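Appendix B.2, paired examples.
Example (i):
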Amino acid sequence: MEQISNLVKAQVLNDALPYIQKYHKKIVVVKYGGNAMTSQTLKDAVMSDIVLLSLVGIRVVLVHGGGPEINEMLGRVGIESRFVGGLRYTDADTAEIVRMVLAGKVNKELVSRLNQTGGTALGLCGSDGGLLEVKKLEGEQDLGYVGEITGVNTKPITDALDCGYIPVVATIATDEAGQVYNINADTAAARIAAALGAENLILMTDIKGLLSDKNDESTLIPEVNVSDVPFLKKQGIISGGMIPKIDCCVEAVRRGVSKTCIIDGRVAHSILIEILSNEGVGTLFH
């Protein structure tokens, strides 16, 4: 049995070789959030996936949110969580909590986990080295201190990559006056991937991908051309909370990212399946 097991392992590695060669020294941006952040088993799988990819020469950048942790801390201090159009309303007190939780707690926990798993990670946030230039997001409704990215300075990330680190980016930033802004993690990941000229942007979610019938996971749409997105919105196939995620995918592709994927973060090792096989585990936008 051991011999068969070793043969299977060898075949798996051999099958992965073309994909390792394809992505060698290329940048892959992973937006990490959702169920994969709250389940201990899935969290361990994500960390090991990222370390493995890094060790075979793929330049991985991890961009993260931390909604559940922010909600928990706001609850502890008696601040109600409010959402407008899928984005967190952020008053001055909430902005400080977001900074504390994302840059202080979640970011450092992820860095520590990656290091414990055998990687070499470095924590960053949008304020570090002027990584993210930001202004107040203007829209039909006031969201408070929610930021719109006006520019990306990739040097802190590329310097970290060149020194062999896995950059872990918390999506908060400050403006020229020092005001803290909360930034949607999907949006930040898309802009960072585009600025880096990434080969792939992977958004981890709590669903299988884009479904033609949102109540039936067997209706997964495996590939979407970004030019078809307006039609899919008119049909109602892209609706609700999927709209901002898919808009991020479209923007990233149009800004030069080779492809973007929405993958099922509930599946263990979904990142490896997406990168190192021809199967994929979600919806590919190209």
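Example (ii):
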Amino acid sequence: MKNKLVSAPYLVWMVVFILVPLVMVAYFAFTDNDGHFTLDYVSDVAQYTPIFIRSIWLALIATVICLVIAYPLAYILTGLKTESQSTMLMIVMLPMWMNFLLRTYAWMTLLGNNGLINSALGLLGLGPFKLLNTEGAVVLGMVYNYLPYMILPIYSVMVKIDKSILEAAADLGCNSRKTMLRVVFPLSMPGVFSGITMVFVPAISTFIISRMLGGGGNLLIGDLIEMQFLGNAYNMNLGAAISLVLMVIVLLIMSIMNQFSADEDGVVLM
């Protein structure tokens, strides 16, 4: 009885802020303005396939870049002294304390034709290059904003790896490269998959980054949904249908990721 009372607020929160919104999205996706059942809006989502493909592609690129940057950083962090680890973690999380819009606006200033980057290149006789309003700028914004979400899960798993396992690998003849590939990397996979999920999901549904750094010419799924609900092309039913399809895509991708992921007890060392 006591456990039920403790979990009651959480259950209420889930119902109000998760279950009810999901039901509302599904309702509007499968009904017309008169409340009659229809599949028209769901079928209309197919015409936006190029936007879905672009969103998935850019989110995938950003996720891979985050992983390539975050993994060695997390590994380096685990090798530092405890005091240094705390300092470096604070530096990693420091940008997250700043407003999301302000961070993105900063990149607009840096990437503009008269921005700091082009101004610096101009001193070398280069440019100006079109850095803003490109797909590259959108990916850069995703990487900058979501990189901490890749570093922290990987670090949290790596720092828990028992040092005696690494010592045993060294005693058995593994050099640093083999220890990394055969011990550290397999044991860190839960953190890697968690980080991939935490970066890919917000990246595929973002709309502020693509609007501000993409200039409206690189429309993503998030922009499309926002246009249907808040733009001139107001169509709540179509917006709900697009949201529902995006939700299904994300769930499918996460299910595939779960098939490849292994829990910490299931890792097999080669």
